[in-house]
Design a protein that fits this description.
Length: 353
C-alpha cells in the first residue's frame, strides 16, 4: 500500500451534514445495497474528549494492541466506544484509513458499525457502536464476576456469526476483503453474546494492487503460507478461523505459555487428538462439565480440523463452514441421538466424504 495521506479524508462535519453529504473527500461513495445507512461522521478531538470526560480512567473499557478504548456519550446521548490509536503517525494513519474505507463500504449484522473518526492534528481516533459484552477473549477466558460461562449453544452461535461475517467479506463485499489478522480479539459481543467482527486495521482490500509484502498476523493464528510473499488468500482467513473455533471448543488460548511444554500451542496440542480420532471429548472445555451434545462436538471438531490444514487448497470455503456451523446452532440443545443424519448434514455442507 502506498504511503498514507490522511488529507484525503473529508473535513470535519456536523453528523447531520455528514449524512447528507454522503461521505465526500477521499472516502468511497455509497454503493447501493452494499453500504451502511449513513457514512461515518468526522469528529473533533474536543468532541470526543468531552464524550469521555477527558478520557478519564472511569471511562476506560480496555487496552488493545492498537490503542485504548473508552466508553463515551455523544452530545445527542448515544453511547459509543472510542479508540485512541497508538503508534507513530504513519501507523495510526494507515489503521484509520483502512478501517474507515472498509467499514464505510460494509453493512452486515455480524460486523461492527463505525460511527465516525477523528483526524485532528496528529491525533487519530475511531468511534464505533458500543457493544456491552466486550471482546470475545475476555468473555471466553476471563469472564467478569457475575457473567455466566459461555455454554455450548452460545459458542456455536458466536462461531456461526463470525463465519457469516467472513463469508460476507470474501464473497459479497465489494471490494473483496481478506481480514488477514482474524483472532478471538477480532470479535466483539453484543447483548445475548451476538458476535460482530471488529479491528479491520490490518485487513487487505483486494482491489488495491502492488501492496508491498508484509508479514501480518498474530502468533498462533497465522496460516503457514502467510510468511511467503504473494501467498496470502481468503484461505488464510480460514486457518485463523479454525484456530478461533478450537478456542471456543476447548476454552484454551491459541498460545499459552503457562501450559506444560507440548500443550502451549493450541493447534499442535489439538492435532494429536484430531489425528488419532480417539478421546475427542477430552478436547472440550472442562468448565462446560460435559454439558454439550457429543455429536455436535465431533462435528465442530471436524470443521476445525479442515480449516487448520497446512495446505490452503485443502481448506473448505467459508460459505460451507458458515452453513455447517449454522446447522450446529440449530442442534445445540438437541439430544445426541439424531439417527445419524447430523454427520451427513455437516459433511455435505463441507463437501467432505
Amino acid at each position: 500500500m502506498p504511503a498514507i495521506n490522511c488529507s484525503i479524508l473529508p473535513p470535519k462535519k456536523h453528523p447531520k451534514e455528514a449524512t447528507a453529504a454522503g461521505g465526500g473527500g477521499g472516502l468511497p461513495a455509497p454503493r447501493s445495497g452494499n453500504i451502511a445507512s449513513s457514512p461515518p461522521s468526522s469528529f473533533s478531538f474536543q468532541e470526543l474528549s468531552n464524550a469521555t470526560d477527558n478520557f478519564s480512567s472511569q471511562c476506560l473499557l480496555r487496552r488493545e494492541e492498537s490503542g485504548s478504548v473508552y466508553k463515551g456519550t455523544l452530545r445527542g446521548g448515544e453511547l459509543v466506544a472510542i479508540k485512541k490509536l497508538d503508534g507513530n503517525v504513519r501507523q495510526s494513519n494507515m489503521r484509520l484509513l483502512v478501517e474507515v474505507l472498509i467499514l464505510n463500504c460494509l453493512t452486515h449484522p455480524n460486523i461492527v458499525k463505525m460511527i465516525g473518526y477523528c483526524s485532528d492534528s496528529d491525533r487519530r481516533l475511531l468511534v464505533y457502536e458500543y457493544l456491552p459484552a466486550g471482546l470475545l477473549p475476555d468473555r471466553l477466558h476471563d469472564p467478569s464476576p457475575g457473567q455466566n460461562l459461555l455454554d455450548w449453544a452460545a459458542r456455536m452461535k458466536i462461531a456461526a456469526g463470525a463465519a457469516k461475517a467472513l463469508e460476507y467479506l470474501h464473497n459479497k463485499a465489494k471490494p473483496q476483503v481478506i481480514f488477514r489478522d482474524f483472532k478471538t480479539s477480532s470479535v466483539l459481543l453484543d447483548n445475548g453474546d451476538w458476535p460482530k467482527l471488529y479491528n479491520f486495521g490490518l485487513s487487505k482490500i483486494c482491489s488495491i494492487k502492488n501492496e508491498p509484502h508484509r508479514v501480518v498476523g498474530t502468533q498462533g493464528y497465522c496460516a503457514p503460507e502467510q510468511a511467503e510473499p504473494g501467498q496470502l488468500s481468503i484461505k488464510s482467513d480460514l486457518y485463523s478461523f479454525g484456530v478461533v473455533l478450537l478456542e471456543l471448543i476447548t476454552g484454551r488460548k491459541a498460545i499459552d505459555t503457562s501450559k506444560p511444554e507440548g500443550e502451549q500451542k493450541l493447534v499442535q496440542w489439538a492435532r494429536k487428538y484430531l489425528d488419532d480420532g480417539k478421546n475427542l471429548e477430552q478436547i472440550a472445555d472442562p468448565r462446560m462439565e460435559g454439558k454439550f451434545p457429543r455429536r455436535g462436538l465431533y462435528q465442530a471438531l471436524m470443521v476445525a480440523s479442515l480449516c487448520i490444514r497446512d495446505d490452503p487448497n485443502g481448506r473448505p470455503l467459508i460459505s460451507n463452514v458458515a452453513t455447517a456451523l449454522s446447522y450446529l446452532v440449530t442442534q445445540s440443545n438437541f439430544p445426541d441421538d439424531d439417527g445419524g443424519g447430523g454427520d451427513k448434514n455437516v459433511e455435505s455442507s463441507l463437501n467432505v466424504g
